[in-house]
Amino acid sequence: MSFSDWVNISDPLANPNSPYGVTENIPYSVGSGLWEIIGGILAWIINMIVPGNRLSPWLISDAVTNALGLVLMVVVFFAVIFIVNLTMIWIERKVLGRIMDRRATRIGPLGYLQCLADGLKTFLKEHIMPDKADKKGYMWAVSIVIGSAVLIAGMIPLSPRWFLADYGTGLLIVFGIFAVSPFMILVAGWAQNNKYSLIGGMRAAAQMISYEIPMLLVFVSVVLMAGSLNINDIVQFQMDNTWFIIPQFIGFVVFMVAAVAEAERIPFDLPEAEAELVEGWQTEYGGMKWGLIMLSDYFRGYVACALGVIMFLGGWALPFMDELVIPEIVFLLKVILLFFIMVWARGTFGRIRTDQILNIGWKVLLPLAVLNLFIVVLLKMGGVF
Amino acid sequence: MMTSKMWVTMGPQHPFSHGLWTLKVKIDGEVITDAIPIIGYLHRGWEKECENRTYPQIIPMADRLCYSASMTWSHVYVMAVEEALGIEVPERAQYLRVVADEICRIQSHLMWLAAMGTDLGNLTVFLWSLREREMFLDLFVKLCGQRLTTNYPRIGGVRNDMPYLFERDCMRVVDLFEKRLWDIIALMDDSAIFLSRMQGVGRISRKEAANMGLTGPGMRGCGVNFDVRRDDPYEVYDLLDFEVPVHKDGDAYARYAVRIEEMFQSCEIIRQAMAQMPDGPVRIKVPRNVPAGSHFARIEDPRGEALMHLISDGTDKPYRLKVRSPIFVNVSGAKRMVLGTRMADVPAIMGTIDMCLGETDR
To answer: B67, B102, B119, B353: least buried by Cβ within 10 Å?
Structure first.
């Protein structure tokens, strides 16, 4: 049999096996298309060696293509998110360099490969664990911190045709997993048997109780206005009516302040305040663990910006346009715009104190969030939306 | 409620310490209830070593007392020796020393401002300050060939005259710096975060400051109107017209504001000194041996009042050379300043002390 009998290079977008009942899902189509090529080549080679075997038809059967297509779909999705995050790190370095009047990264074209150099360096570092640390807490806590960051990054759809799963309770689950990490930071800070880490972990907990409640109140206002928890529905509602930043500008500001705190970036990076706490809760982590913690910080920053885009800036929609124009790129550009504001804040502000973030959270953000909720309820009762 | 307090050792290798010293703090949650500063890690027997050096050999050693105020430290040393010799320095050399001192004061304050920026969590202030500092270090390179350990003053004058066009370079740098310093001030003073971190923390009263012997910006930040340059003038400071910035609050922000205003005053002093610069020799010949006696000289270091007490025995080596370091005294106020504040305030408060361990431990 010839090569073309085994390799089916059809249009990957026209995949009839889409499991979600939607018209198309690009990561899945790319994944199953990839498997059609890889599996086909494998099947062809095996069939040349052992003609007439049963393995080759099995490799290109619908069931195997579906299953491995799902696996490759996750890989494709993760690769895209990963590249987006490397780009965000690169943007942060370049923008900070411009703000600070210094040279930024210079490895590779336009300094883009600095992240890879950093990754390689941390990967080659020795694995060191403190002797008196609690081994399980030390390893599991940081694994959950990193894992939850990557998980929620995978739960954010880039467009109605670019997602891993389309679930009804979308935003609620994202917010739920977003809030897991401060608990695990507390555990990690305790497990390291280091006073700086302990204080850093305690600060993470103190910080969380101050920004989490205003953030959830803003989330409730958005959900109330859209009438759905599903991310697609929220974006569709904004496309049909107006972007939520217009009626809920207060909510947007509250959310962005809380999102910076959630992503633990300056001015709210109290758990890892390097001036007084050395490296805060990360003090005893080294090597690739530390590198992944750093990377997961950017994943969380990406998720914070993406949530801001989905909830207030109309997601993947363009203003004054009904149809979508390359929605993935539009979405990512909006995310990077919000991230630029975060980087700008990092270049401009200092670090605030623990008691000050409690004051900001409870005396400023919480009343503003309640006011925002009140406005939303009034608009909803008045029949504006 | 049962609370347990915990000792946290901050230092010697800690990002806030800016050198090798330790601040042990006892914290209740995050509130500091007790503090012990521990210094001495950098003790290298400076004073004893001087007793085995001839007088000119000590000048480069005096540079090493503080990396960012080397000019003022070698200056106070040669002033003490000139006092013992009873000689008058040529007027041009006096003006040159004043210019060099003020350049040193600005670059030292800029180094402090940079460190203060990182202490408060912002790297932009750090890099902008170091960018400005580079201009003044370039002036040092033109004047004496070195960036940090300048080795410029000599007993009986200075090492060399101004290089060609140095006056023009000085004016340009000072004019440019005064404009650019406003950028940094805007970054710090327009930001509510910086203000809230500095205002009201690390408060020390005028009486406590006097009892501890605080000098320099720490003293002027709590309302004491005293500056060696104005009240006990050395060299040609009595011929120059400048103001001594004084703030009354005594908190970290007052010390910050005093230093910022001092930089503007230093620019003014450089301008006036350059305008009044007379012609003439810059160095006179001095005898090798210093007559026996006990003399001291004091000077307004960027960090406070630097004093050197010289006991000579008629030979070409000092019998005893005692250094009064401003930071050695100021750091004793660390406990009073951090009591009752939070752990996050420690870098903000200790940053305004402007630690320099070379002169503290000697």
So the answer is: B67
Q: In chain A, whose CA is at the least distance from the CA of B119? A: A275
Which residues does chain B have within 8 Å of residue A348's beta carbon, measured at their own beta carbons?
A: 122, 124, 187, 191
Closest CA to A78 of A294, A259, A299, A297: A299
Inter-chain touch A350–B193, beta carbons under 8 Å: yes
Angstrom distances, CA of residue B336 to CA of A145, B24, B201, B339? 40, 13, 11, 6
Q: Is the peptide bond before A267 cis (omega within 30 degrees of 0)?
A: yes
Cβ–Cβ gap A276/B197 under 8 Å: no
The boundaries of the domain holding residue B218 are 6-361
Residue B115 · residue B18 · CB < 8 Å: yes
Q: Check pLDDT > 70 for residue A274.
A: yes
Q: Is residue B319 part of a domain?
A: yes
| Domain assignment of residue B214, yes or no | yes
Cα–Cα nearest to B135, from B95, B181, B96: B181
Which tens digit of pLDDT belongs to each residue from A194-236?
888 888 888 888 888 888 889 989 998 988 888 888 888 888 8
Contact B354, B221 (CB under 8 A): no
Per-residue b/e over B330-359, b at no fewer than 16 CB within 10 Å? bbebbbbbbbebbbbbbbbbbbbbbbbbbb
Cβ distance A352 to B10 less than 8 Å, yes or no, reads: no
CA distance A329 to chain B (A): 31
Count of structural domains, chain B: 1
- Find chain A residues with C-beta within 8 A of B176's C-beta: none
Asked if B196 lies within 8 A of A270 by C-beta distance, the reply is: no
CA–CA gap between residue A311 and residue A235 (Å, rounded): 8
Q: What is the spatial distance between Cα B86 and Cα B178, in angstroms, rounded to a whole number?
A: 39
Two tokens, residue B352: 């305004």
The model's confidence at residue A20, banded by pLDDT at 50, 70 and 90, is very low
Contact check, Cβ <8 Å, A276/B194: no
- Stretch A73-88: mean pLDDT: 89
- What secondary structure does DSSP assign to B161-226, as a single string? PPPTTHHHHHHHHHHHHHHHHHHHHHHHHT-HHHHHHHTTSS---HHHHHHHT--THHHHTTT---
* Domain annotation covers residue B23: yes
**Minimal Cα distance from A273: which residue of B?**
B121
pLDDT by residue (tens digit) across A85-119?
999 999 999 999 999 888 888 888 888 888 888 88
Lowest mean pLDDT among A165-169, A370-374, B55-59, B91-95: A165-169
- Residue A18: the pLDDT is 41
Q: Is the CB of residue B48 less than 8 Å away from at least one CB of chain A?
A: no
Q: How far apart are CA B330 and CA B202, in angstroms?
A: 13
As a whole number, mean pLDDT of residues A250-254 equals: 91
pLDDT reported for residue B141: 92
Chain A residues whose CB is inside 8 A of the B127 CB are 100-102
Q: What separation in angstroms does the CA of B68 have from each of B72, B108, B271? A: 9, 5, 22
Which residues of chain B carry a pLDDT beneath 70? 1-3
Distance between CA atoms of residues B207 and B289, nearest Å = 43
Chosen for mutation from A93, A276, A357 (greatest number of chain B CBs closer than 10 Å) is A276
Lowest mean pLDDT among A31-40, A111-120, A165-174, B270-279: A165-174
Pairing assessment for the beta strands B31-38 and B22-28 based on DSSP bridges? antiparallel
* Minimum Cα–Cα distance from A266: chain B residue: B121
Identify the CATH number of the domain in which residue B210 sits.
1.10.645.10
How many CB pairs lie under 8 A apart between chains A and B? 84
Partner-chain contact A267 B345, CB within 8 Å: no
Residue B98 falls inside a structural domain: yes
